[in-house]
Write a structure and sequence with these properties.
Elements lengths: L19 H24 L4 H7 L1 H29 L3 H7 L7 H31 L15 H36 L1 H15 L4
Length: 203
């Protein structure tokens, strides 16, 4: 297996240890329990007070940021670090946090903007098709935070940047690589992808 940890020497690399499967599973499980609890709290209307203060859409943005940064990024990293007793730098390099080149950053940003705009275009086309078929969208709405340049930037951060970093840490970084040692690459990829779909309630 490829050594994910850079040049530091140790008796056995982190991702080749037998117990890394259990540590990754526990870190992911803790993260998912917190995620489900937050979804239940939201469903019970516990965020209603915040919504009354800042608005429903702003509350959704705040909740998304909380879920991404705290539940999908910080919690699994901290739990995994605690269980493996490794320095955070070693854990981060182990899950693929390497410095990308400027070229990769530029292409990634460009692709993110293009796919975001493509998503808007596809949604608009399907909306037109539905209207032509006789579907009438419910009226209402209120103010949206996703308006203008500010809205575009918020949308890119909420839809592209945060999930692209935070969810990848928990799902592909910790869970999939933790599964590889026990299950092999293909089983780890398929199982972590299945769990990723289930987490989004979209198989």
């Amino acid at each position: 297996m490829e050594h994910w940890l850079g040049g530091e020497k140790e008796s056995k690399p982190l991702w080749e240890r037998d117990n890394v499967f259990m540590h990754a599973s526990i870190a992911y499980f803790v993260s998912m329990v917190l995620f489900v609890c937050l979804r239940i709290a939201s469903g019970l209307g516990w965020f209603g007070l915040l919504a009354n203060e800042v608005g429903e859409l702003a509350t959704d943005v705040i909740a998304t940021v909380l879920i991404q940064i705290v539940i999908f990024l910080l919690v699994p990293l901290i739990v995994f670090k605690f269980l493996t007793k490794q320095p955070m730098k070693r854990v981060l390099t182990g899950i693929g946090f390497n410095r990308p080149s400027r070229k990769v950053l530029g292409y990634s940003f460009l692709m993110g903007v293009l796919f975001y705009l493509l998503n808007i275009f596809v949604a608009m086309v399907f909306s037109i098709v539905l209207v032509l078929l006789g579907y009438r969208f419910p009226s209402g709405g209120g103010d949206s935070v996703f308006v203008g340049i500010t809205g575009l930037l918020i949308g890119i951060i909420i839809v592209g940047v945060l999930p692209g970093v935070c969810e990848e840490v928990s799902n592909r970084g910790i869970l999939m690589r933790g599964f590889m040692i026990k299950l092999g690459v293909w089983r780890a990829v398929l199982l972590s992808s299945l769990m990723f779909g289930l987490m989004h309630m979209n198989i």
